[in-house]
């Protein structure tokens, strides 16, 4: 840290993204990307916009906002588009939390939440998950704090039903409830249908997982118009061109091709369930997943060793060092061929123990 770095960041520990090693070609199952490429019209849209990069992008993000509002059955004033959903989350933390309005979230969840809280000097409470890694809904009802919940949760993969999510929102009318639906397209219910009923709800989604656009950085939030206006005040106060023109055009094309992406999600769900069955046969404990990843452990090998042995054989998964989950690894669902490779390498590792 330089002597010039502001003391307001003394306690800040930056988020550590999943590794992106360049030393060899890995079977990459560590950052929950889609294994399927973008559709042809998305690639064409990027090419077409590339020739116009001398011009700024549309700060109102008009065409994309309109397309999102159509697909999700809301009005344009209910939508804000962002540079990845991380930016939507940060805007929500910045806009609605402060020293007097702390935020609560599970102790095992998306690792960026405590970072956004530290970054914005927001007190936060990490509420322990139950022993089976589920969320105890009562912990969040009338909790007197803003709440952020990833549904389905990451890295566990476990989803809460919509009625439970609604209980949390309804019981906290004077606090914001952010539902982070990064993985919603892989088999859980969205809370978007509730935004007109609850003025304290913000639903955040991303194009990074189900829509094969992690590298383009595109996310969005859907909420009551006043909340969206507040978040836009912060967007225009930080970076009005937050969604670049290639990404914007790709996002529109991806929504026009929605069927292609939803078919990919179905395939990923099928691959997830067959991989889960094979892992259970190999003695793994596998949490129920409504996402594009599985959270797994095996009594006969430590989480860290399994991660390292896989990596040495060219398969990357994500290991977290946090005590409660150190015996687990998070395995992204790739193509059937990639998963067959993962299972074969796993058999080899277990066979050598
Ligand atoms: N929320 C959750 C739960 C995630 O796992 C991720 C992916 N790291 C994100 C949000 C952010 O994704 P992105 O910024 O790529 O939209």
Could you characterize the architecture of this molecule?
With 353 residues, this protein is α/β, with parallel strands linked by helices. The chain folds into two domains: 17-37 and 259-351, Aspartate Aminotransferase, domain 1 (Alpha-Beta Complex), CATH 3.90.1150.10; 40-256, Aspartate Aminotransferase, domain 2. The chain contains ten helices and 13 strands. The strands form three sheets. The protein has a seven-stranded mixed β-sheet with strand order 2-8-7-6-5-3-4, with helices on both faces. Strand 9 (284-286) and strand 10 form a beta hairpin. Helix 3 packs across helix 6 and helix 8 runs parallel beside helix 10. The radius of gyration is 20 Å and the shape is globular. It starts with 26 loop residues before the first strand and ends with a helix. The model has no long low-confidence stretch (mean pLDDT 97). Bound molecules: 4'-deoxy-4'-aminopyridoxal-5'-phosphate. Residues 84-86, 110, 150, 154, 180, 182, 206, 208, 214, 219 line the site of 4'-deoxy-4'-aminopyridoxal-5'-phosphate (PMP).
């Amino acid at each position: 840290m330089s002597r010039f770095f502001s003391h307001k960041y003394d306690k800040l520990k930056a988020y550590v993204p999943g590794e992106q090693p360049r030393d060899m070609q890995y079977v990459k199952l560590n950052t929950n990307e889609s294994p399927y490429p973008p559709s042809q019209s998305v690639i064409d849209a990027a090419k077409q916009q590339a020739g116009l990069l001398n011009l700024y992008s549309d700060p109102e993000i008009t065409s994309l906002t309109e397309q999102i509002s159509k697909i999700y059955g809301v009005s344009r004033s209910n939508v804000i588009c962002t540079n990845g959903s991380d930016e939507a989350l940060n805007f929500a933390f910045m806009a609605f939390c402060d020293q007097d309005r702390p935020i609560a979230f599970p102790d095992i969840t998306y690792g960026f939440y405590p970072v956004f809280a530290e970054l914005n000097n927001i007190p936060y409470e990490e509420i322990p998950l139950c022993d089976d890694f589920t969320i105890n809904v009562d912990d969040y009802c009338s909790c007197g704090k803003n709440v952020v919940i990833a549904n389905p949760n990451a890295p566990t993969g476990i989803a809460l039903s919509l009625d439970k999510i609604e209980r949390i929102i309804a019981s906290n009318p004077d606090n914001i409830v952010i539902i982070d639906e990064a993985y919603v397209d892989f088999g859980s219910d969205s809370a978007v249908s509730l935004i007109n009923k609850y003025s304290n709800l913000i639903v955040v989604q991303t194009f990074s997982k189900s829509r094969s656009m992690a590298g383009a950085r595109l996310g969005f939030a859907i909420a009551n118009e006043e909340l969206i206006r507040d978040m836009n005040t912060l967007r225009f106060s930080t970076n009005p061109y937050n969604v670049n023109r290639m990404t914007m055009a790709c996002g529109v094309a991806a929504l026009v091709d929605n069927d292609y992406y939803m078919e990919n999600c179905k395939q990923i769900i099928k691959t997830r369930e067959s991989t889960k069955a094979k892992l259970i046969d190999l003695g793994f404990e596998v949490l129920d997943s409504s996402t594009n990843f599985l959270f797994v452990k095996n009594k006969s090998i430590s989480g860290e060793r399994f991660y390292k042995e896989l990596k040495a054989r060219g398969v990357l998964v994500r290991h977290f060092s946090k005590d409660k989950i150190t015996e687990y690894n998070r395995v992204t669902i790739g193509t059937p061929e990639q998963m067959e490779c993962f299972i074969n390498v796993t058999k080899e590792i277990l066979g050598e123990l």
